[in-house]
Amino acid sequence: xSDFGEAFALALDMLARLDANLLSIVYLSLWVSLSALxxxxxLGLPAGTALAIYRFPGRGVLVLLVNAMLGxxxxxxxxxxxLLLSRAGPLGSFGLLFTPGAMVIVQTVLVLPIIAALVHxxxxxxxxxxxxxFQILGATRRKAIPQLLLIGRSPVxxxxxxxxxxxxxxxxxxxxxxxxxxxxxxxxxxTIVLETSKGNxxxxxxxxxxxxxxxxxxxGLAFALAARRYAS
Amino acid sequence: xxxxxxLVLAFCAPLALLATSPARAQQSFIVLASTTSVDNSGLLGHxxxxxxxxxxIAVRVIAQGTGQALATASHGDADLVLVHDPDAEAKFMxxxxxxxxxEIAWNDFILVGPKSDPAKVSGxxxxxxxxxxxxxxxxxxxxRGDKSGTDALEKRLWKADNLDPAQAGPWYxxxxxxxxxxxxxxxxxxxxxxxxxxxxxxxxxxQNLVIxxxxxxxxxxxxxxxxxxxxxxxNIKRAQAKQLADWLASxxxxxAIAGYTVGGEKLFHPEAxxxx
Lengths: 232, 276
Description:
The complex is a heterodimer of chains A (232) and B (276).
Chain A: H1 2-17, H2 20-53, H3 59-68, H4 74-85, H5 100-136, H6 141-151, H7 153-168, H8 172-178, H9 188-197, H10 201-231
Helix pairs in contact in A: 1-10, 2-5, 2-7, 3-5, 4-5, 4-8, 5-6, 5-7, 5-8, 7-10, 9-10
Chain B: H1 2-12, E1 29-35, H2 36-40, H3 43-55, E2 58-64, H4 66-74, E3 80-83, H5 86-94, E4 98-114, H6 127-137, E5 141-143, H7 149-160, E6 172-174, H8 179-189, E7 192-196, H9 197-201, E8 209-213, E9 220-228, H10 238-249, H11 251-258, E10 261-262, E11 265-266, E12 269-270
Parallel strand pairs in B: 1-2, 1-3, 5-6, 5-7
Antiparallel strand pairs in B: 3-9, 4-7, 4-8, 4-9, 4-12, 10-11
Helix pairs in contact in B: 10-11
């Protein structure tokens, strides 16, 4: 148990000193994960809603596929992205491999199904409850989307936080396409892998505590903002 | 409608982050595919800043097992390679991926095991004899199993004594991981494992593990720097990679390697140091 005590002390110490090295790693982690979340949101929000309210051939299969992709193994996504982004691969000329950009791409692929699937589920319920009223009022489906999203904003927020959780905690994909290069592609999770391999278990655990603290802070912030919006 | 626009804005605001990429100001850099042993031990962190200061070329290190590092390079994703598996390197050269191959440092492998030493191998000078004792005692042994330089040597040693780890019992644990993972596993289950000295000296979770066998000539560990053949890899930064390779082999680079110590112990010997 001494490792846990030491880890907490180390974590507090790092946070108190605002260790420069730690800050740059935290910054990169947040940058990569929030970028992936933003892109996945812009794609997943409309996609999930469309799946819920439009009826078209092949919709059932699409819903099944999106839900199946919730179980995408990060390491496989990372490997596939590596082969595509490698110099020898079809997208090699972009020079994205071993850059933060490559990490954003793989995390977007991992986050998108989470957001699309959870938004689909939420919007399906909302549409079942309110869709009829919208149609009586003469709104087209497309016009109803914004209102539906507003009504269902609580589960949508949950979808976004779930997506963020997947991104910030992920290591299998980003360590392959990022390469864990110090100062360039080293994030919280890849640092934890590295320090564990060096036998610095207390330090690795301390970084884990910092990571969880950041996650709690971001979730708290999101809930506080949502609560304010409800109040207003 | 206004609230919706706000909502969309709030969701997409993080996109603005994309414009503030954390990638540093465009400094000239090369990618070095290397092994975990030279990186985790702190050697590269010690010597590369000296090179960068002198030349202005930053070096981005991808630390992998030798097998993976060579694969990365053969895909054209690295500009230079620093690895330690003679057989795999020879194949890499024969495949036309490498242009020149130079030894720039050496140290040695060691057999580590629990203090209690259930296989009674402590102090043996002959590594094959020691491994045979572990085999006969059927005590836990951790194998990297990841085609790294260390893994390749371990497989060669068993083979040299006509033993086949594939036929070993459950005491032989193929963990499929890096040196650090193997040491963590060995420490957790009081097992024997083969380690390079650099990683061992800088490893901080030894628990009951100690060095039990060292000093056999067959345990020498050679680190080679390999420049890539531009015919096969036209996109690599050939000139800067050559600069680093030349510097590593130069008097200054060799002195930097010799100057890296942990707890007063030299982790890597420059190429010219006399071998035992």
